[in-house]
Amino acid sequence: MELSRRRLLGTVGAAGAAGLVVGGAGGAIGASASQEDTPKALTTLGSTEVPFRAARARHQAGITTPLQANGHLAAFDLAPGADRKAAAALLRRWSRTAEELMAGRAPDADTGIALDAGPSSLTVTFGFGHSFFGRTGLAKRRPVQLDPLPDFSADALDPGRSNGDLWIQIGADDALVAFHALRALQKDAAGSARLRWQMNGFNRTPGATTHPMTARNLMGQVDGTNNPKPSDEDFDQRIFVGRDTEQQWMRGGSYAVVRRIRMLLDDWEKRSRHEQERVIGRRKDNGAPLTGGSETTPMRLDANGPDGLPVIPANAHARIAAPESNQGAAMLRRPFSFHDGYREDGAPDAGLLFVCWQADPLRAFTQIQRKLDRGDALSPFLRHEASGLFAVPPAAEPGDYVGRPLLEG
Ligand SMILES: C=CC1=C(C)c2cc3[nH]c(cc4nc(cc5[nH]c(cc1n2)c(C)c5CCC(=O)O)C(CCC(=O)O)=C4C)c(C)c3C=C
Ligand SMILES: [Fe+2]
């Protein structure tokens, strides 16, 4: 089976370069598994590889990488007695495993879960939580940006599903590839760290729509339209830590805020489409602002209707969260939807694993969430149930592991 996977992967480069698409993913994989002697090229979905360390980018994969269809978020706490040296050894193991898996190679003593599949845009991203620094004797190297987030009035946070010493974000366009990575990394942690919490998410599968589109969330809204774009002049400055940071090990890194936000879908779905659109300030069908145009047309926040009232209501989510309402603050939102079955009252336990990226959480997430907390029309339909804040260092240098400048610097 190992030989088969390697032979398959050997065809990836040629297939990918030629943009060859071999039917659906299931078809290609099914055929290869049953006909070991005649390996076929992987689909482009399966063969797409995201480099563990990009040649020019300093940041880890999984921040500006396009959203994948499957995601796992996991937080670990160091085991009692595990010190800085043990943490360094764990990050070394994790980095090696992540690099192998992202290249579509099986790690040692593999479970076989992802056999036959290519890398499928797998990304693995590592971060450090506030508590990590005290436990490893590195309190002096803890960035102020990791100071705990303030309490918000609508918070109903579960501490057991919040924060943690170490955080991993996994994304892949194949569910087995994503789970395989989660298992491999969890096994690597044995003896050094134990799982604190773990959450599973999903997004639309690439190829499900006629052309690439902004994702929809479980409320049915086009979500992600007004994200900062890598082509924006101030993108790097907003999302990645700059050279003037006190903690040089974070230069080129970013801060991730993670929130498990349950949606009160029974209440939401009772509202008319017109009401739902006024809650956000954008149309549901194409994501265009209520002031007209297409999805990418800027909102006209100063436009009034014939009744003299703002066309985009004063409490519309997109208005309150916009940089214009927040002294220019912006973040890169990169969420996964979640559905964890049904609650006792029959309501879906579903919503958004909200993950956002910024150079400074105080000036981005906290600034905006404070504003939303005071009068966002969307808030009555949401419950913030878990929260985390993590320092995500830059990518490892070749031959190195993520976080070495912190752990050995
Ligand atoms: C603190 C930050 C934010 C939280 C928490 C949040 C939750 C949340 N948002 C939606 C749905 C939409 N959000 C949209 C825009 C938008 N949201 C935030 C911030 C938070 N959202 C920002 C900064 C923006 C961009 C504002 C702008 O510049 O225009 C939109 C509109 C489309 C878009 O631009 O993405 C939707 C829809 C949900 C469902 C949710 C919690 C579950
Ligand atoms: Fe939002």
From TrEMBL:
Main localization, broad class: other
Domain Dyp-type peroxidase N-terminal: 60-203
Intracellular or extracellular location(s): Cell envelope
Protein name: Deferrochelatase
UniProt record similarity statement: Belongs to the DyP-type peroxidase family.
Domain Dyp-type peroxidase C-terminal intervals: 214-396
Organism field: Streptomyces sirii
Cofactor note: Binds 1 heme b (iron(II)-protoporphyrin IX) group non-covalently per subunit.
Record's keyword terms, sorted: Heme, Iron, Lyase, Metal-binding, Oxidoreductase, Peroxidase, Signal
PANTHER family given in the database record: DEFERROCHELATASE (PTHR30521:SF4), DEFERROCHELATASE/PEROXIDASE (PTHR30521)
